Amino acid sequence: MRLETKFFEEGLRILHDESVDDVVSEYMDSAQDESVMLFNIGDMVQKVKNWKLKMPRVKPFYAVKCNPNPTVLKVLAALGTGFDCASKAEMRNIVDLGVNPSRIIYAHTVKPKSHIKEAAALGINTMTFDNESELYKVKSVFPTARLVLRIRCDAKDSQCNLGMKFGANPEEIEPLLATVKALGLNFVGVSFHVGSGCREPHIYYEAIQRARDVFDLANSLGYSPYLLDVGGGFPGNLGTSIDEYAKYINRALQEFFPDDDVHVIAEPGRYIVASAFSLLTSVTAKREVEKKDQRKKMMYYLNDGVYGSFNGILFDHQTPKPIVIGNALDEKKKNIPLFESQIWGPTCDSVDEVIKTEMLPELNVGEWLLWRDMGAYTLPSMTTFNGFPGPNIHLVVPYHTLLLEDILNDKGQAALDKCSPLEPKGNQCDYPKIPSTRNLFEKDQDCHLMDQVKIAANITTLRVLEI
Ligand SMILES: Cc1ncc(COP(=O)(O)O)c(C=O)c1O
């Protein structure tokens, strides 16, 4: 099926030579009470391009849970990534976008029976497991499912440890595979997740080495696994890099899985979307409180808080940092004094604290603060507690991102679907020959194609693109 993403109709701001920072003032509307989330589509496209450059063998399957904003999903679908879904609603959502089910992995080791049935009905065949009870469920409702064993290998230093809840320990692996065999189920591969926001790139090397041992064990039981899933955990904030992660992963793949017959995927969430979203909040009210040393301390109340866009403070161990913009920034440049400031969200609850203490110039009601790296694990876990609605989302896109062309014909798209890494060896075809986006961009820039491209209002469709 041909994919067409119709997101431009929602209205978007095209960036020519400007950066997102240059245009934030256009969104600081004093007549508006809600916060504003700016989604820079170009940032996400660059992330996918960079991934393919750094880890060409590892196909990204975006972790939908991280940010299921419809434009995020549509653009990624058009870019040809796969998807990691954790529930029947997520699977249905992605299939409804027109994504071929062969580009979806059901990557949750604990699955309600009805969700397994839904996967079967949708044609999503590949799913993870890490415990025996799961195998009996699969046996009863989807006995031909392609099973991927999630093993445990934790980074010591990560933002969110997942190993305490998921992943088979070394001593559990052999009995689990024996049960798979006894039940006559279909074992196809190994996955792991070292922890979200992993700060130890070298752990991927160790995890891939352990996965090799499981492949060998499965071979000895008569299975021929063909899928390795290196999970998520990659950093995505501005100024971070996946270079070190790629170094360890590429090296481990070369050493332990030199044969291309083993397909390699990953489930990045944070990496893809974190830096693409910036939040603008305004000051709804302020209070001045005295400190013991007579220096005043400020309390500010914003139009967004931990029940809204800042819920990652509670759920994702996030520590957002405010950036002063507008009038207050101009004042700051003049070396005016900074005051100890505490920042609260808008609700009636005192758990709604965004910043305990930060040195800031004095802000006035109606002034705005900018918060970067707000794209990961923010929007999906938001509530409307107390009736506060959350941010208005606006799209911005650098001009060169608009230059994406329809370079895959229907035949190419069909081939791309058939080439999903989740398909076993026999079902694979050669990847279609597709010009790289890099060349496309260079060509566009050199030839000043600007005049030839129908921009802004006229462009409503971004066609399928493999980059
Ligand atoms: C199974 C699974 N895969 C992928 C991810 C995405 O991880 P990250 O955002 O760290 O890349 C998660 C996050 O919780 C997960 O549970």
Task: Describe what you observe in this structure.
The chain is α/β, with parallel strands linked by helices. It folds into 2 domains: 16-39 and 277-398, Lyase, Ornithine Decarboxylase, Chain A, domain 1, CATH 2.40.37.10; 41-274, TIM Barrel, CATH 3.20.20. Helices cover 30% and strands 22% of the residues. Strands 2, 3, 14, 15, 16, 17, 18, 19 and 20 form a 9-stranded mixed beta sheet that branches. Strand 14 (277-290) and strand 15 (296-302) form a beta hairpin. The radius of gyration is 24 Å and the shape is elongated. The protein starts with a strand and ends with a strand. Residues 63, 66, 84, 107, 162, 193, 196-197, 231-234, 267-271 line the site of pyridoxal-5'-phosphate (PLP).
Can you summarize this structure?
This protein is an alpha/beta fold and 467 residues long.
Q: Categorize the overall geometry.
A: elongated
Can you summarize the main beta sheet?
Answer: 9 strands, mixed
Give start-end ranges of low-pLDDT stretches: 1-9, 405-412, 431-467
Query: Would you tell me the overall average pLDDT?
Result: 86
CATH architecture of the largest domain: Alpha-Beta Barrel
User: Per CATH, what is the topology of the largest domain?
Assistant: TIM Barrel
Extended strand count: 21
Helix fraction, binned, reads 25-40%
Rounded Rg = 24 Å
Tally the helices: 15
CATH class of the largest domain: Alpha Beta
| SS strand fraction | 15-25%
Q: Name the CATH superfamily assignment of the largest domain.
A: Alanine racemase
Task: Name the bound molecules.
Answer: pyridoxal-5'-phosphate
Q: How many individual domains?
A: 2
Structural class: alpha/beta
Oligomerization category of the chains in this entry: single chain
Distance between the termini: 18 Å
